[in-house]
Amino acid sequence: MAVSIHHLRRLKERAQPIVALTAFEYATARLLDQSGVDLLLVGDSLAMVALGYPSTVPVSVEELLHHCRVVRRGVEHALLVADLPFGSYEQSPAQAFATASRFLKEAGAQAVKLEGGYRRMVETVAFLVESGVPVLAHIGLTPQAVHQLGGYRIQGKSEQEAARLSEQAFALEAAGAFAIVLEHIPAPLAADITRNLTIPTIGIGAGPGCDGQVLVTHDLLGLSEKPPAFAKPYVDLAALIREAATRYAEDVRDRRFPL
Ligand code: KIV
Ligand code: NA
């Protein structure tokens, strides 16, 4: 049965971990979906790992819409969530709805993710949810704010920052977010936030105490140029691809292929 936002809540209630990955194109999206992943995210990490941008800041709505449509064609089971890119939602709830509704109407997303838990973003989450757009929130290390944060550093290390993140998580739950991504914060803080919320948390670089885990699929597969230290490659696809291409080149040059 296809995964719904309600199913994710039930998984938390049953203490069953939620499995999430990013998906960027049709072939891998199909395979990930067939593997029984619960949630597939057309993340704006696409910008860095698949489009070659230096950060997630430059990627456009049109680019993410395109990839979301492509992924949609390969996904039957997982809940399909799309990132709203930087600059497409921060100005106002109305701007956010205009962008989010395109992902649902034109690209088959079932929910959107947006970064930040400050007051206006909480208002925006409430507006989207009231308008029928399920929202996955995202706090902690929010890569779209890389220039503000001064790098991809762990967040929530001071007591004050930890308290602020806990407050944001509460406020986002109250605003109606169906789950929250916690990125690169101390494991005890993530576990604490997770215990105190009724909606699921999905961690990345946030320790084992979250209700689920998400990884960038390029990191999972060993395809990223600079994977974060907290990512775990499950296979070295970069080596396999290089080896296949090298063998092919040798065969063509030595006239062993085709026979
Ligand atoms: O863009 C992305 O891949 C993400 C996940 C890492 C949560 O936002
Ligand atoms: Na993202």
From TrEMBL:
UniProt pathway: Cofactor biosynthesis; (R)-pantothenate biosynthesis; (R)-pantoate from 3-methyl-2-oxobutanoate: step 1/2
Binding residues annotated for Mg(2+), in chain numbering: D44, D83, E115
Reactions this protein catalyses: (6R)-5,10-methylene-5,6,7,8-tetrahydrofolate + 3-methyl-2-oxobutanoate + H2O = 2-dehydropantoate + (6S)-5,6,7,8-tetrahydrofolate
InterPro entries associated with the record: Pantoate_hydroxy_MeTrfase (IPR003700), Pyrv/PenolPyrv_kinase-like_dom (IPR015813), Pyrv_kinase-like_dom_sf (IPR040442)
Gene3D superfamilies for the chain: Phosphoenolpyruvate-binding domains
Entry GO MF terms: 3-methyl-2-oxobutanoate hydroxymethyltransferase activity; magnesium ion binding; methyltransferase activity
Localization annotation: Cytoplasm
Catalytic residues (UniProt): E183 (proton acceptor)
Primary location group: cytoplasm
Subunit structure: Homodecamer; pentamer of dimers.
Record function comment: Catalyzes the reversible reaction in which hydroxymethyl group from 5,10-methylenetetrahydrofolate is transferred onto alpha-ketoisovalerate to form ketopantoate.
Protein name: 3-methyl-2-oxobutanoate hydroxymethyltransferase
Species of the source: Gloeobacter kilaueensis (strain ATCC BAA-2537 / CCAP 1431/1 / ULC 316 / JS1)
Taxonomy of the source species: Bacteria, Bacillati, Cyanobacteriota, Cyanophyceae, Gloeobacterales
